[in-house]
Specification:
This protein is of the alpha/beta class. It has one domain: Alpha-Beta Barrel (TIM Barrel), CATH 3.20.20.80. It is 41% helix and 11% strand. Strands 1-2-3-4-5-6-7-8 form an eight-stranded parallel beta barrel, surrounded by five helices.
Length: 385
């Protein structure tokens, strides 16, 4: 099965740094023209109103090397991209913002053992039921849309906590992967479902919830995520009916991990439920990180499509390898991604039925080309096919 018959595949790319300016010396207009020449139609970018925390894209090293060179403004970058005929999505890391958690320390999530999350590596999740945190994020996104006038929003980290990058095929899920069991979540769940939890400590109540009320718990958490997205969409759609939303989602088929359906039961992303508030789903099919073969894409796309048949499904693919050393070593990940491997994955995703591709990220293409590689050439060949 190929991507939808008669439809043109979308080609998107994440541009979450400014190395196109600092390292490669491009103006916003030059970078926009190059992105269009690469065959992209949609560009996912960051902004200073609701800044993305450092994660896989570390801003500090190249900015320091740039010696304080001024960066283009968010509006200038957006306008240049639009001027080149590109669709611009502003990105938010909705439930990942360590600086905001410092302002709202009770937004730090609690796992099913009763432990307060300390995060993993660069990642620290957020409890999605914290009203002050969510209100702050929504207010920022209204400003982003009002001041920068993007064509849509890309919601990333919109889930209950979990470092999905660790979920290689032999990953074993434990109670420490189950969130959030803070007092606020347990009380809301019990109140909204008419459940009386037994007296006892947090871990004992979590055990009762997961043992006796698992179906209600999973449905309630999925509804929390749905409500958060619905509130964002309503807030940014004032004066802009139907403002487009693209959602970053876990890629795992329901059948992975012996049918655990971890996208829903761990991350609380229910694609069927979310389909009335999301226009496009991004499946994070980072094959090298997840140590999955190209053949896995067919199952990932088909199962997602069955859950939300009317929404577009885009697969994200890596340009360069990640998480191969330090705390991430020893998980069987490939140390390299060749241009041919990248191209084969792209073709496999489209053949599996994806409506388009999202590449992570543009700087990797530029660096590969500067080193004599041909990943950009492969990209252009696929985009023009």
């Amino acid at each position: 099965m190929n991507h939808r018959e008669g439809a043109t595949a979308s080609f998107a790319v994440k541009v979450y740094d400014y190395q196109w300016a600092t390292t490669f010396g491009m103006s916003p207009e030059q970078a926009s023209a190059e992105l269009a020449r690469d065959g992209f139609d949609t560009i996912l970018i960051r902004n200073g109103i609701d800044p993305l925390p450092n994660s896989g894209v570390d801003q500090s090293a190249y900015l320091a090397a740039a010696g304080g060179k001024p960066l283009p403004s968010d509006r200038a970058w957006t306008d240049a991209l639009k001027g080149a005929g590109l669709h611009v999505l502003q990105t938010t890391a909705l439930f990942f913002d360590p600086e905001l958690v410092d302002r709202f320390p009770d937004a730090r999530p609690v796992d099913a053992t009763g432990a307060l999350s300390t995060g993993f590596d660069w990642y620290l999740g957020v409890c999605p039921t914290h009203e002050g945190y969510l209100e702050t994020k929504i207010a920022r996104l209204v400003r982003v849309v009002d001041e920068l006038e993007p064509d849509g929003l890309f919601l990333s980290f919109t889930r209950f906590p979990g470092f999905w990058e660790n979920w290689v095929p032999d990953y074993v899920f434990t109670l420490s992967d189950q969130f959030c069991f803070c007092d606020r979540c347990r009380n809301r769940f019990a109140d909204e479902n008419g459940i009386s939890l037994p007296a006892g400590n947090l871990a004992a109540q979590a055990d009762v919830i997961l043992r006796d009320f698992a179906a209600e718990w999973h449905a309630w958490r999925a509804a929390v995520i749905h409500q958060a997205i619905a509130r964002i969409r309503e807030a940014v759609s004032v004066g802009r009916p139907g403002f487009p939303i693209m959602l970053n989602t876990l890629p795992f088929p329901q059948s992975d991990y012996v049918g655990m359906d971890v996208r829903r039961t761990v991350a609380a992303q229910d694609l069927a439920m979310l389909s009335d508030v999301v226009d496009r789903f991004e499946l994070m099919t980072y094959l090298q990180i997840l140590h999955r073969p190209n053949s896995w894409l067919e199952l990932a796309v088909s199962e997602a499509r069955a859950l939300a048949p009317h929404q577009q499904m885009l697969c994200t693919l890596q340009v360069a390898p990640l998480y191969t050393d330090g705390v991430h070593a020893g998980r069987g990940r490939a140390a390299q991604i060749s241009a041919e491997e990248m191209g084969a994955a792209a073709r496999a995703a489209l053949a599996a039925g994806a409506d388009g591709l999202v590449f992570y990220h543009w700087t990797d293409f530029l660096e590969d080309e500067a080193q004599g590689g041909h990943k950009r050439a492969v990209l252009r060949e696929i985009a023009s096919a």
